[in-house]
Amino acid sequence: MTTTTPPALTGTQDVATPVTRAARVRRRLNNPFATGASILIAVLWTIPTFGLFVSSFRPEDEIKTTGWWTAFSSPQFTLDNYQEVLFGRSASSGQLAGYFINSLVITIPSVLFPLAFAALAAYALAWINFKGRDWIYIAVFALQIVPLQMALVPLLSFFSEGVSLGGIELMPAWNLDDQEKFVQVWFAHTCFALPVAVFLLHNFISQLPKDLMEAARVDGATHPKIFRSIVLPLIVPALAAFGIFQFLWVWNDLLVALIFAGGSSEVAPLTVRLAELAGTRANEWQRLTSGAFISIVVPLIVFLSLQRFFVRGLLAGGVKG
Amino acid sequence: MDFADEAPKLLMLLYGLIAFAVVVGGLLVLLDVVPNWFARRREAALVAAAPVDAPAAAGPRPRRRSVANRPEGALALFFLLPTLLLLAIGLVVPAVRTTVLSFMDGNSDNWVGLANYRWMFAQDEILGILTNTLIWVVLVPLVATAIGLVYAVLVDRARFEAVAKALIFMPMAISFVGASIIWKFVYAYRSGEYDQIGLLNQVWVMVGGEPQQWLNNAPLNTLLLIVIMIWIQAGFAMVVLSAAIKAIPGDVVEAARLDGVNPWQMFWQITMPSIRPALIVVVVTVSIATLKVFDIVRTTTNGNFDTGVIANEMYNQAFRFGQTGQGSALAVFLFVLVIPIVIYQVRNLRKQREV
Fold first, then answer.
1. Mind telling me how many Å the CA of A38 is from chain B's nearest CA?
2. Hey, are the CB atoms on A112 and B17 less than 8 Å from each other?
3. Domain's final residue, options A78, A105, A125
């Protein structure tokens, strides 16, 4: 919009020496307005997180009485907030270490299950010929967009009351207590992840070379064999992309966890606990800042180290809800 | 932290991993066994039908052909079984049930017809919530996409492009809850006689205003919550659009430049038409995410001070007030809002698959 590339040079001289990459870069940097605008946006986008980060290391009474931007004129930093919010004994302190483990326990199986099931399904939808294949694919695709809210109430009652149809019990109530509730969180996350997982992996698997598949078939390989020894190794980047996508989704999720894990310290993940602290202890900034940072740091590391895969996953087009 | 408290959780994780290994491993083994079993049966049938003096060496050939021609429906079913089963139990059947529940009362005992839907459009409070949702869905995709696009164009081929993009993209990795806390801190309020700790109030005081309780004042508070969502989604828009911009063929850009177009024309006549599909994807995706926004509202105001949105109210009605019928009606309404997007996407998909 504000690219002020100088009007193209006229004549043959320009054709003879095509604009090189370096030349373009130079031109861009010559434009102070573009540079200024992009720096402004970058600063605006970074400052809130930076403020939280700085504050989380300041002593309690400093956070509560002075702005974090004053911390640089009279530096006073401490790790007490982290100590307190992670391991503090009192009920008000957060006790986030336990919730951190809950988040891990929830996340790992919730990534693995949909990954495996979706890879199998995506392969079948891409390379096995059967009747109704297109319809199943379109249905799965459409399910991506259906809001989770449509499923929450009945799914919760499946778990707590079982399923019965016309007086016949099809599935008994699960009656899970304490840690066992992890199972229903895994189950819910797996179901909700499948449409987008199948879609992403199908995009990738269906683009594998047809010759390769046919050659394998002619050699007498069965579908399961092709899947295991040819397809799986080739789709590792796609699996990584979806794995990261799903990891961030589950780790950062609040709604599913609130409903299927509840608020108890045995199962609730970090997000649920943080939302609770933000509601009930809204002015305890020393806990909120450090707590928020603890919940942010894992996805941030995953994201920064595997950004390439994640971006690829996004570009393959997921519209999860 | 007491390790004794954590051990049962880790044990559950172990169970989960074992279950994963057993289910997936079992499935793979099953997939191996089933076709072999079919093959052997067919072979047996062939052997039985073949002339007795047929040489044994001829065996593999008919078998090989049969592998290629066998109807594969049964096998595909095994591949698809876990996914279809889980989708049915976890999404399809519940969605149908939610629709049914939306015509029943709070305890799901009696049929009430359309009463829940009438309630939705009669209550001022709920109408306010619907209006808020509309404001969200209009503003977030528009502003987030615009900022993402401008930024993608600005940093395209700049010297620190990778770093510049990572900075804007970073909020995508942060949970909505974390983002809400970050911004709540920006909006924090202390009364006028004290130093401000929130950045917004500090700036506001510096330009001569009275400190405000930003999140308590409607309708401004809804806009401030929308800022959080824009902050998260702009990075997504930027990444997708930036990839689209880079995919514009270099000779097109070069040709335009030779024709002497100015940058403004370049943007509107070359860049915009080329990235149109990506723009649509971004707007659709961000719109859907915005329609279902829940975490931000719940963490910052919990829907108080006239900031409620549909997803948040649905949660409150169904899970806090025990009004299953009204909650379900709100969920169904949310679904109705996305139906046009579903139809549009499915049509696009079918067009793509025909090519």
1. 6
2. yes
3. A78
Residue A91 binned pLDDT confidence (cut-offs 50, 70, 90): low
For A249-275, write each residue's pLDDT tens digit.
999 999 999 999 887 888 899 999 989
Residues in B 297-326 with any Cβ partner in A closer than 8 A: 298-300, 302, 311, 314-315, 318-319, 324
A102 assigned to some structural domain = yes
CB atoms A49 and B182 under 8 Å? yes
Q: Nearest-CA distance from B202 to chain A in Å?
A: 8
Tell me, yes or no, whether A24 lies in a domain. yes
Q: In the predicted model, what is the mean pLDDT of residues B320-332?
A: 90
| pTM as predicted | 0.84
Question: What is the value of ipTM here, to two decimals?
Answer: 0.84
Q: Could you tell me what percent of chain B has a pLDDT over 70?
A: 92
Residue B37 touches partner A, C-beta closer than 8 Å: no
Residues A102 and A240 in one domain: yes
**pLDDT mean over B11-38:** 85
Same domain, yes or no: A19 and A105: no
Domain shared by A73 and A97, yes or no: no
The two three-digit tokens of residue A141, written as one number? 């695709």
Does residue A241 sit in the same domain as residue A302? Answer: yes
**What structural domains does chain B harbor?**
3-115 (no CATH), 116-354 (1.10.3720.10)
pLDDT tens per residue across span A17-48? 444 554 554 454 457 788 888 889 999 999 99
Domain of residue A18: give its range.
Answer: 12-78
Quickly list DSSP for A39-57.
Answer: HHHHHHHHHHHHHHHHHHT
Residue A86 lies in a domain: no
Assess B292–A contact: CB distance below 8 Å, yes or no.
yes
